[in-house]
């Protein structure tokens, strides 16, 4: 039986409760269940006053030591990503910024935390460090601490750096810095975690001495209270989309979904149907909806996560999409939340790959190709007629994705590393 009480873990993450972001969810749930297993947590995170949801604080471990540091970040977009004029002085300004704020704008926040982390390690006899990325710069103090104190380093590696599409839009300075620190981080880590097989395979190409494993996205069953309030019977049939949205990058461009839904409404002369987008309230999306003169589409700004879960439970059908990429998308944390809401899921993505297989195998919903409007309209029609096959009690099929169980696997790995390091010192 592994003794998790022996683990004293320094835990570094920018995004953490009560910050109400997708990035904070995984870090928060890991810390919650690691602490329940007996791990002593020392959590270093940002003192972020924007986008808060204080209800998330219920998951912060009672016995954890939380150290927060305010983030002061200037405008630091790379000159390669800007429409910078040919003025040499203007270009030089951006190049200097790229030099000072590489690999990303959090670099000085990450480095300035080092003295406090070092004092804590010495005083509290920390015997492991875990960093939940991104941003990428948080891995740098992790590598430094490992070198200074010879303790195991665990990295939760969300996305690749140098092969990231965002990286391709950066200057040569940021690309060089990303490449250097990605290699340095992977080579020095004792355990590398990622959520998808492609990123696991990518990390293995570095031939790191550390183990590389997949710990998928998942759900926290405690978030899905059977007594959760839901709205009464609605006079509208509701299709609901919630989740990540970044129109600036066009990764989550809703125009195709809007167009397909509008075609579905007009083709079938339906008046009692509503498509709700939670988080989509930018001018470009609103203007697009106005242009097609649709009164059956509603956009809502980002709302607290507990309210999102309530809306998911009361909706008729849950909508997922990823545009404009035609790719085998990973199973996102949002899809797991959808599954536990016990409602049919329709995904406009691709008809193959991990997401398709996840929905099909677990009988949670169906997909349509995101480059085929007619196919998308047909899926809206099928969902409206109640013909989507889905499990009304899916938990037993999804236990491997329960974050409580996933975190136990993580704790096993960390405990083995701590024991190995301590044994090597005693020899």
Keywords:
40% helix, six-stranded parallel beta sheet, Rossmann fold, seven-stranded parallel beta sheet, alpha/beta, 427 residues
Your description of this structure?
The protein is α/β, with parallel strands linked by helices. Helices cover 40% and strands 15% of the residues. The strands form 2 sheets. It has a 7-stranded parallel β-sheet, sandwiched between helices. Strands 10-9-8-11-12-13 form a 6-stranded parallel β-sheet, sandwiched between helices. Strand 9 (273-278), helix 10 (283-291) and strand 10 form a beta-alpha-beta unit. Helix 5 (139-149) crosses helix 7 (172-188) and helix 9 (255-268) crosses helix 14. The radius of gyration is 23 Å and the shape is globular. The protein starts with 7 loop residues before the first strand and ends with a helix. The model is unreliable at 226-232 (pLDDT under 50).
Q: Tell me, briefly, the overall form.
A: globular
Trace the largest sheet across and list its strands.
3-2-1-4-5-6-7
Report on the biggest sheet: 7 strands, parallel
CA radius of gyration is 23 Å
- As a percent range, the share of helical residues equals 40-55%
Uncertain segments are 226-232
Domain count, please report it.
Answer: 2
Number of helices: 15
- Intertermini distance: 23 Å
CATH level-1 class of the largest domain: Alpha Beta
Beta-strand fraction estimate:
5-15%
Q: Can you identify the CATH superfamily of the largest domain?
A: Glycogen Phosphorylase B
Strand element count: 13
Question: Whole-number average pLDDT?
Answer: 82
Query: From N to C, what is the helix and strand string?
Result: EHEEHHHEHEHHEHEEHEHEHEHEHEHH
Under the CATH scheme, the architecture of the largest domain is 3-Layer(aba) Sandwich
The secondary structure category is alpha/beta
The CATH topology name of the largest domain reads: Rossmann fold
